[in-house]
Amino acid sequence: MASKSLYSHRDPVLRKRDDFEDMLEERRRSSDLRYALRCYTPLLYKGLTPCQPSMLKNMVLQSDHLHYVINQVSKETGTAADVIQEQASSILDEMAHSQQLSTVRFFAFALSKAFKSLFRSVCVNEEGIQRLQQAIQDHPVVLLPSHRSYMDFLLMSYILYTYDLTLPVIAAGMDFMGMKIVGEMLRMSGAFFLRRSFGGDKLYWAAFSEYVKTMLRNGFAPIEFFLEGTRSRTCKSLTPKLGLLNIVMEPFFKGEVFDVSLVPISISYERILEESLYARELLGVPKPKESTSGLFKARKVLSEDYGSIHVYFGQPVSVRSLAEGRVKRSHFNLMPRHIPRKPSDDTQSFVNDTAYRLVRSQEDNMVLQPWVLMASLLLQNHYHQRPGREEAMTLDELTQHTLWLRGLARDYGAFLHWPDHAAPSEVVSSSLALHGGLVSVAGGRVLLALGQPGGQGGAGEECGIVSSPEEELFSQAVTVLSCASYRNQVLHVFLRPALLATAIHTASSTHREEVFNTFSFLRNMFSNEFILCPGDTVQDFEEACYLLLKTAALQVSQQELLVTESGRRTLTFLTALLDPFLQGYQVVCRFLCEEATDSLTEKQFVPAVRSFMVKLILTGGLRYSEVLSSDLQKNALAALMRLGAVRKVKGSDQVTLKVNKIMVNSLEDTLGGKLPTQKAVLARL
Amino acid sequence: MASNGSSDTDSQRIKAQQRLRIIAGHLQQRPVDGGSAVVAVECKAEGNKTNVASSTRTVPRRRHEVMKWNGWGYSDSKFFFNKKGQAEFTGKRYRVSGMILPSLKDWFEGTFGASLQHKSPSAPVLNASAISPPILNEAFVEDIKSTGIPFSQDAEDRVFRAHGHCVHEIFALREGRFGRVPDLVLWPNCHNDVLKIVDLACKHNVCVIPFGGGTSVSSALECPQEETRSIVSLDTSQMNRILWIDEKNLTAHVEAGIVGQDLERLLNESGYCTGHEPDSMEFSSLGGWVATRASGMKKNIYGNIEDLVIRVKMVTPRGVIEKSCQGPRTSMGPDVHHFIMGSEGTLGVVTEVTMKIRPIPEYQKYGSVVFPCFEQGVACLREVAKQRCAPASIRLMDNEQFQFGHALKPQVSSIFTSFLDGLKKFYITKFKGFDPHCLCVATLLFEGDREKVLQHEKQVYDIAAKFGGLAAGEDNGQRGYMLTFVIAYLRDLGMDYYVLGESFETSVPWDRVLDLCRNVKERITRECKERGVPFAPLATCRVTQTYDAGACVYFYFAFNYRGLSDPVHVYEHVEHAAREEILANGGSLSHHHGVGKLRKDWLRESISEVGMGMLKSVKEYVDPNNIFGNRNLL
Known about the structure:
The complex is a heterodimer of chains A (685) and B (634).
Chain A: H1 2-7, E1 21-22, H2 24-29, H3 32-36, H4 53-61, H5 64-77, H6 81-95, H7 101-118, E2 121-124, H8 126-138, E3 141-145, H9 151-162, E4 169-173, H10 180-188, E5 191-194, H11 202-218, E6 223-224, H12 243-253, E7 261-269, H13 275-282, H14 292-297, E8 308-313, E9 317-318, H15 319-323, H16 345-364, H17 370-383, E10 393-394, H18 395-411, H19 424-434, E11 439-442, E12 445-448, H20 460-463, H21 469-506, H22 512-525, H23 537-550, E13 554-557, E14 560-563, H24 568-594, H25 602-618, H26 630-643, E15 646-650, E16 655-659, H27 661-671, H28 679-684
Parallel strand pairs in A: 2-8, 3-6, 3-7, 4-5, 4-6
Antiparallel strand pairs in A: 1-2, 7-8, 7-9, 10-12, 11-12, 13-14, 15-16
Chain B: H1 10-26, H2 52-55, E1 79-81, E2 87-89, E3 100-101, H3 104-112, H4 138-147, E4 151-152, H5 155-160, H6 167-174, E5 184-186, H7 191-204, E6 207-211, E7 231-235, E8 242-246, E9 251-255, H8 260-269, E10 272-273, H9 286-292, H10 299-302, H11 305-308, E11 309-316, E12 319-321, H12 337-340, E13 349-356, E14 358-359, E15 363-371, H13 374-386, E16 393-397, H14 399-407, H15 415-431, E17 440-448, H16 450-466, E18 470-471, H17 474-496, E19 499-509, H18 513-530, E20 538-546, E21 550-560, H19 567-584, H20 603-622
Parallel strand pairs in B: 5-7, 6-7
Antiparallel strand pairs in B: 1-2, 2-3, 4-5, 8-9, 9-13, 10-14, 11-12, 11-13, 15-17, 15-18, 16-17, 16-20, 19-21, 20-21
Helix pairs in contact in B: 1-8, 4-7, 13-16, 18-19
């Protein structure tokens, strides 16, 4: 049952979703202090008492798995085993959480205050909480929230504390630990810290995986980590990372636990705290190092209005039912279980598949605000303006378009949060007010607020310094990227139909097979950019056709896919939605063909391609300033590498990129519709 | 037999009687009424051999004269709830016979949500008209007649040999449903009779299904639906003599149809035993043990059947297979005995077996240990196995099974005993702090010289103490073993009240014992829920044998099926799922029940394609026309 809910995407409109309750309402009415100090008695897995962090560390140190690896490393390096044992012990000290209720209570108090001033509401689906409560008692639970903000894991713990659920232990990136006091505070609230990369370090991997598995096997607490690995700066879901997912599934594969429940959680922010920060980062302003003082500077954000947060606890998914028929557990029977070994191809592909589906179910339950629809429209409108001509939408037009898009989104099964009691114009204007930094309304027309970087700089800058065209472009791009990050939230709803629309647009004929080939090419090309489950090409194609047919935007006659008259608008919108990406990838290809030398290193790639793009934009050869996003550039490169058009060559001190120009060129042409998607090309890919 | 003028010395006789009493303790109270000990007679197939010798045997030709047609064991022995709602056991054969078990009802109703108001009685008598008439191969029957081997076409005889004791088989009987049954039953008297039968079967192309004790729980005795030839059930029960005893080498040569209790009894009369005591030993036969690779409760001292067998004679369509020497171990290529052991009647009939015997042990002592939880208990058993000091038998029952055993406590005769019981309970749960819903019990059986037994006992209890175990008395131990003999009778009781139950087993490496037990029990519970079983099932297990590298785990599974339209189907589904779970958790397909037809779907993945091919090619060579056509294993 649980597995089906994860797999069935046939008609997205039929998905049933729970209602939300605002948990801040209660907080606004009663004492935060009393709340923080209240009696907290969560129901535990099989009535277990949670274990002391020190005991946990000992269990890990005494595990067969760690012993085995310690001896192995000792033999390989010639270092005495007890020295390595010491190393393991200090790895664990660095990593381990030291959750204590007093810290949690402190956070409960502090966050209550902060949330009340930042957000209008924090809405939670209480049915999901009830399901989670049941799941926690039945099986070890893994919480998998989406990751859009630093707030995410504090928010998660806050919610679980409020609803009297077992507090999770959270896998956090080591960068948090750099924040002196806060790092320790987070540790005491249940975070454990992971190094970002520990590629070949067997000992680290063993200590870390055993640490996680020990907690899971014993069911001491739910384990929480971010499938996406890091915060998504673009608000698009990121390609899932498999390491931790592998680790938490292993105890099931090995029969050490009966089952493991995976709970996808979607956290949607109406307005993201880090909005302009992300945009700057994507444009190449390096990410500020996490520091405590930085956090305090961020205090000024406390005075702003960030709308509401929606947290949706998805249906717990049983690993057992997912793995049924996919993973042969008996394969794990023929070797002692503590000896680490690489998962088989079957297992690997199962884990990968599951990860994608979990991320998709996170996407599905993301709550979309009206602003997200407006941002998509405003952005498209912005791109299609020509300099000097006043073509911005009027407020009325915007409202009309938004209502139209609302209908389309609903048809496609989007989880829209549209205040039904308010008049559409009110909804639109209140959204504009909340995002006042990104848009300006002048003379009844709505425009992106360009030239006011991040919208926060205030009006002073405009009349002050005259900036260079590049600087101006970048400051505009900050707004565009911020706006795009809202548009991106709706992408998963329109993605499949948009790929189909683009395929129809690009393909050399309307023949179904031809369109499918193009669709399949595009889908393959963009599978680093968007969440597209591996192996689901046909299913995605059918879903796209189904949705377009359902909304009468498409007709099928004798193997021909024909756009209907009434469907033009839809198709135009969908094509325009994907066009920045399509062009962005083409430009990356063009850069690689025209400018890349043999000595181009991986590190130089992003700055080089960016300045290539800047030139192109300034000369009018490209109108999408959002392609300046390093995210897009990196994804395009990753796709090209996956397809074999670019290879990494490891030199002595740096990695250079070796470009197969013929192939890149033909990919560019195919993207642009200049070359038909031949079967041969596909086969070669 | 004490009055019998055999050549036994007095001391041996005394030992024999002592041994008999012991065995009677957990077996039956058989009236000792004369009868010869070892009958070293030549086979007289022609003679009317319904004679003195076989009247002392447990199993007559017409089994239904003493045994139930629709359930387990003797007709005179069964559980029932009396008018006061108390459970009673009828008959005189067992220790519990005639006793009242006051707590069984509450346990039964509480565990299964069953009620004494809701009965699901069996069809009262075997309705012979529901059985299809035999398909006879006239020429074969004519030839058999001329050999003088007794045979029967009676419906009752045929039905009795068409099933083992799987739950679906008994359920069908109780509902009066009979599938394909054998067309003819033959009772050979000796090896030569079997030779003749197999010869004629080959000549006339009839299908032969060997039948020993009929205690199979693997659907091994079911007649294949697709079999169109005449099916002959070859009942070995009348081949039940000990042909000779070799005291110098401590071996005995025995006809394969003898049932366990007769074998032990007869050997005891000479001061010996085999020590092979499967739970079914009252009814299962030596030939059956060989054909299924049986395991005995006391294998720690005596070994399993493969350790006990010195020489086997099996009649196959190709001829007789036997070794030409009695060397205790050989290196003569793959051991051909291993084609025979576990062949499950697909290759031929085992007719005679030379097996090891031992002098009857001087002293026997039961014992038990309570552990605070199952995990500790398993750790203790593992340590005992590691130190290789396992007593004759050591079993660890989980909490549910402990409570089950407790429900079988007979009414206590005096206030003093009940006071003592109360005191014990108080000590364990209150003073020692054991949680009554977690604690579990290991039952022990020691055997040997008195001195050594006491020493051994101390060693084991010392280990147990290290794992938090507390000695819990002989009585608990003995009752634990009683459970295994009455469990099948209890199943019949359950079936009278809408409860279906079955047991199954596996063997598993030590490090996976706990995981396997937990996962299989949980899987059973979950599958029942998914299949709409309204009340949570009983899923309980015990670690019932220990080995150097692992253990044998035995599960009981039972549920209340009231309100289900097709309980057997539900049952089969759950059992299937449980077996999948066992295999996924590193357990074997079977430790001692065998594969039969019930588990053959998994054999290929268990022994690999090539392994399967090996078995097939042996079958191909030995029995190209599939005369032994029960279609087990392959």
